[in-house]
């Protein structure tokens, strides 16, 4: 049984079909890429997996159990977290506070305890602060713990967003264009870091990425979308030479010329 299964997912927005009958299975402990040209439906697929959209058709299974229709917070509670193509940090809050938001999703204190600032709430808050700082250390940015998130360089914001995602204690993390906007040195660093996440934290990683060098060097398996449909899947070697993939990225003339 695959860890995560998307079976026949379809999502429509009026007359636009963003995903049509997309089936993707993810094995535990793997790094899987979902690639395709702009507008192929990749982020829509991520949004369905993480509860931001409800599929019009199809099913989503986690360890064989349906998670279709659950809210994003419920999905996170089941061990699936994500980052976004456009970074979504609380820019006026510090880096440490941003990560604490992720930790708070796992705290047990009720509304009355929060209102009366009970000892249990204070203890939980301190544990959240310590855990958040350790996550900043893990992603290598503890030195900016007290800086406003919005003032950080782009590459550090990316790492901060990953730290906040890790704070939910996930089993699966979906990374939406983690190398977007990065220079070559930063891209190498984020590639090594993603590999570290898999090996050290036993995470299953699904990524959307346009940097084909990163995709081919990092992924163990690749699914390709085009105009909302899955047109290919396979290992990096198989995808690199697939005529349908080459046509989707370069146009039909490229395959005819070859």
From TrEMBL:
- GO molecular function, one example? ATP hydrolysis activity
InterPro entries linked to this entry: AAA+_ATPase, ABC_AA/LPS_Transport, ABC_transporter-like_ATP-bd, BCA_ABC_TP_C, P-loop_NTPase
What keywords were assigned to this record? Answer: ATP-binding, Nucleotide-binding, Transport
Share an example GO biological-process annotation for this protein.
Answer: D-alanine transmembrane transport
All copies of the ABC transporter domain together span: 4-252
Q: Which GO terms describe its cellular component?
A: plasma membrane
Q: What is this protein called?
A: ABC transporter ATP-binding protein
Q: Which species is listed as the source?
A: Brevibacillus fluminis
* Organism phylogeny: Bacteria, Bacillati, Bacillota, Bacilli, Bacillales
